[in-house]
Design a protein that fits this description.
Helix 2 crosses helix 11 and helix 11 packs antiparallel against helix 12. The relative contact order is 0.17. A hairpin with a 5-residue loop joins strand 5 and strand 6. The strands form three sheets. The protein has a seven-stranded mixed sheet. Strands 8-2-1-9-15 form a five-stranded parallel sheet, with helices on both faces. The protein has a three-stranded antiparallel sheet with strand order 3-7-4. It is globular and about 60 Å long. It has 389 residues and is an alpha/beta fold. The protein starts with 7 loop residues before the first strand and ends in a 10-residue tail after the last helix.
Length: 389
């Protein structure tokens, strides 16, 4: 009931912050969300929501809002970028709903954030403060904004988190040595070899390219990720030159299609090293706590899991510090496993020479259903006590 617990202030109204606000409100907490941006405009075209994320969004009552905006790809493919030969594939679509009891979906970032924001605005226990930058992450400073003293501050303010800087022993943000180039092909320009009904990872030496539909709006979102790359010049000409260099030797159909794609820009990929996530007053979630490389396509999913499981952990009326300790211990183990999977994927995706040939051979010998088993620990994740239907 309102007033029976100390209010909570969430810093950041991205996917992590808005999901945290809804999850905490569902447990009876009054929540203030403080966001420096005047408008909630997510950067980037789209993202993948694996079943471990959509299961949580459904528990928050968001499926009906989101389903008209997402696409459930029929499968996830690994394809050789040079030959366009399919190396392996994992079924999704109806298979995902049956095996993991939740959909695998792709959606525009703006659609997901918009649905979360609408739900927050409609919730009587949530108050959203836009165009409000914080000076520091102290309870007194934040109470001057919200007019109520928070019992806990949730840092969901991303890689450049001010809340993280206030937590002693926090992990350091560092350049990963990888760069992501983002492009889009609108519906009318989505041509071979890109199939808008599936998620495809094209693999090559020192780089890979992921192609997937941009939600229900049509078209294809493209993300090329290169390792050991630097790019100081952000001009359109430099962008095109970098892509051409990155995918040199790839199949001409890919290079031809990319020459017609619209460019969204390039970003050095930053990760946050392991460190302290909380100090009893502040708790970090999402990229603020553990920004990771996108090689497992789990950045958004881990943020959503953090948010939902934090609310579950502190909603049990136990000692707050003990609840936060238990939450961090559980989440760190989960995040470490996802990071390890991402590191393995990076090695496999960017392989060359004999390693590339061995990778292709091993994957070709496994059936799609056997490959799907490798994702049970990830996509089938549930809170303690939750049972598979």
């Amino acid at each position: 009931m309102p007033g029976t617990r100390a209010p909570i202030t969430v810093v950041g109204a991205g996917i992590a912050g808005l999901t945290a606000a809804l999850s905490l409100a569902a447990k009876g907490f009054e929540v203030d969300i403080v966001e420096r941006a005047a408008n909630l405009d997510e950067v980037g075209a789209g993202l993948q929501l694996s079943p471990n994320a959509t299961r949580i969004l459904d528990a928050l009552g968001l499926t009906a809002r989101l389903q008209p905006h997402w696409v459930e790809p029929s499968e996830i493919r690994l394809v050789d970028g040079r030959s366009l030969r399919t190396i392996a594939k994992v079924p999704a679509g109806a298979f995902a709903r049956t095996r993991w009891h939740a959909p695998y979906a792709v959606i525009a970032r703006s659609a997901l954030q918009g649905a979360l924001a609408d739900a927050v605005r409609a919730h009587p226990l949530c108050r959203l403060h836009l165009d409000t930058a914080i000076c520091d992450a102290t309870p007194a400073s934040l109470s001057a904004i919200t007019r109520r003293l928070p019992g806990l501050i949730v840092g969901a303010d991303g890689i450049g988190s001010k809340v993280r800087l206030a937590v002693a022993g926090h992990g350091k943000a560092r350049l990963s040595g990888n760069i992501a180039w983002r492009l889009t092909l609108p519906r009318h320009a989505a041509v071979s070899p890109f199939d808008p009904t599936v998620v495809t990872a094209y693999l090559g030496r020192r780089a890979h390219l992921v192609a997937y539909p941009i939600g229900a709006s049509g078209g294809v979102n493209l993300v090329a990720i290169g390792s050991g790359m630097t790019q100081a010049d952000t001009s359109e000409e430099a962008f095109r030159a970098a892509i051409a260099q990155l995918l040199s030797g790839w199949h001409p159909d890919i290079r031809s299609a990319l020459s017609r794609a619209g460019t969204l820009g390039s970003w050095p990929l930053i990760e946050v090293e392991d460190g302290a996530w909380h100090d009893g007053t502040r708790i970090l979630i999402g990229d603020a706590a553990h920004a990771m490389m996108p090689f497992a396509a789990q950045g958004a999913a881990m943020a959503i899991e953090d948010a939902f499981e934090l609310a579950d952990a502190i909603g049990k009326h136990g000692d707050l510090t003990a609840c936060l300790d238990a939450f961090v211990q559980t989440r760190k183990a989960r995040v470490a496993r996802v990071r390890a999977r991402g590191a393995f994927n990076r090695f496999a995706y960017h392989a060359s020479g004999p390693v590339r040939l061995g990778r292709n051979l091993v994957l070709s010998l496994r059936t799609p259903e056997r490959l799907a088993e490798d994702f049970d620990w990830l996509y089938g994740h549930r809170l303690p006590g939750q049972k598979t239907p």
